[in-house]
Write a structure and sequence with these properties.
Elements lengths: L1 H13 L15 H6 L5 H9 L16 E5 L7 H13 L3 E6 L3 H8 L4 E4 L6 H6 L7 E4 L7 H16 L4 E3 L1 H9 L10 E3 L3 H12 L8 H11 L4 E4 L4 E4 L4 E4 L11 H25 L9 H24 L5 H6 L1 H9 L1
Parallel strand pairs: 1-2, 1-4, 2-3, 4-5, 5-6, 6-7
Antiparallel strand pairs: 7-8, 8-9
Helix pairs in contact: 3-12, 4-11, 8-9, 11-12, 12-14
The structure holds ligand NPW and adenosine-5'-triphosphate.
Length: about 350
């Protein structure tokens, strides 16, 4: 048995290969899944990684990206930390967290590398955050945000300003709760990427269509939701990560692990916040050079990169830690997973 497991792991190191632990498929067959995209996984990765800026000595601090996580409250300090540190480890220069007063010393104690603002529950929370806004290239709204009304109100105001500033916004966790309460907040904003898990997707779909999504038709329901929300990008996370903006669809199903410890979605949304910046910059450059529009819009490329990175981190961390794997173990793998996938 042991040698069989070793053989599976050894084989998975050669790659590209099939997922190590296939579970019940959302699709009837891998062929059905492949048909949804015209390019193979290798070509897609090549396309997605073309947005990654080269490391250069002549760049100054900030030019690789400044991101901000809006989240962190009394109960949840891990989630905003995971998101913010993942953006930093994936290559951001500066990573900020806007959290409640109580959460701030805890998050600071995890990492001296994060810039932590204890303002989310202050009387002037919106002003405090907005004065920083011109510094940011993207926002990740929701990890550990909690659901208190006044904090959600602040998050709404911050999202409104980010839209004015045309920033990419990744909306996750309690940010999705907020959007489910008020879909108009992001409707039609094509720089938004939503990252629902199965439960969050179901809640948002039900709010919009007044019925549950058909689990047999994940792609159809995803495209419907994207369109109804005005072509925002949505990453439907699960056994297969399915990404759409209502027109195009991408899937990422490689690897990952059978561990479902909390916080993996935070690594995903944090790294996606950074990749969204890079992909937007690459698209702006492309337009400036007068090239034809890319096949996949920048939000979809960012989502694809983050799904690939998260699942590769998960695979590597699981190989080392098995059942003991936690999100912290995945974060340790960001560098090697990044090099392996994108170099
Ligand atoms: N260390 C930390 O600080 C972490 C903090 N975190 C933070 O916690 C906050 C709340 O987020 P959340 O996701 O736990 O809350 P919520 O949306 O109510 O989901 C719970 C309900 O959904 C269900 N369910 C969940 N997944 C499902 C699935 N795939 N498929 C099907 N069902 C699924 C599940 O159902 P059950 O298993 O109970 O039947 C349960 O009822 C948020 O701020 C987040 O960022 C996390 O990031 C983790 C690390
Ligand atoms: N069954 C699965 N098999 C393989 N990978 C999965 C599976 N379910 C989720 N994932 C991966 O785990 C990552 C996080 O997805 P998940 O559904 O756990 O999000 P989440 O519940 O929002 O996470 P969090 O615990 O951070 O709130 C995604 O990148 C997804 O690809």
């Amino acid at each position: 048995m042991l040698s069989l497991v070793a053989a599976v792991f050894a084989n998975s190191m050669k790659r590209p290969a099939i997922p190590s632990f296939p579970a019940k498929d959302l699709f009837n067959s891998i062929e059905q899944m492949r048909k949804m995209t015209t390019l193979n996984a290798g070509q897609l990765l090549e396309m997605a990684k073309s947005v990654i800026p080269p490391l250069q000595y002549n760049k100054h601090k900030g030019q690789a990206g400044r991101v901000a996580v809006i989240g962190g409250c009394k109960e949840y300090t891990g989630a905003p930390y995971f998101a913010a540190i993942s953006a930093l480890k994936a290559g951001a220069d500066l990573s900020h967290v806007f959290c409640t007063d109580e959460a701030a010393p805890v998050i600071k104690s995890y990492s001296p590398e994060l810039i932590v603002h204890p303002v989310l529950d202050s009387d002037h929370s919106v002003e405090e955050i907005l004065q920083w806004m011109p510094r940011f290239h993207s926002l990740i709204v929701g990890p550990g945000l909690g659901r208190e009304e006044h904090i959600l109100k602040t998050a709404s105001a911050v999202i409104e300003q980010a839209k004015e500033n045309k920033l990419p916004i990744v909306i996750d966790a309690d940010g999705l709760f907020l959007v489910t309460q008020n879909p108009a907040l992001i409707k039609g904003y094509t720089n938004a990427i939503l990252t629902p898990n199965v439960a969050e997707f179901g809640r948002l779909y039900k709010k919009i269509f007044n019925k549950d999504p058909d689990p047999e038709e994940p792609v159809v329901t995803l495209k419907q939701l994207c369109r109804e929300l005005g072509h925002v990008t949505i990453v439907h996370k699960g056994i297969h990560d399915i990404i759409s903006n209502g027109d195009k669809v991408l899937t990422y199903s490689m690897h990952g692990s059978p561990r479902r410890c909390g916080g993996q979605g935070d690594l995903l949304s944090g790294s996606m916040g950074l990749f969204a910046v890079w992909a937007k910059w690459a698209q702006e450059e492309n337009t400036k050079e007068g090239n034809s529009p890319p096949t996949y819009q920048h939000g979809m490329k960012a989502a694809y990169l983050a799904c690939a990175l998260t699942r590769e981190c998960s695979r590597r961390a699981f190989e080392i830690n098995g059942r003991s794997m936690t999100t912290t173990d995945m974060i340790v793998q960001i560098h090697s997973a990044f090099e392996y996938l994108f170099s």
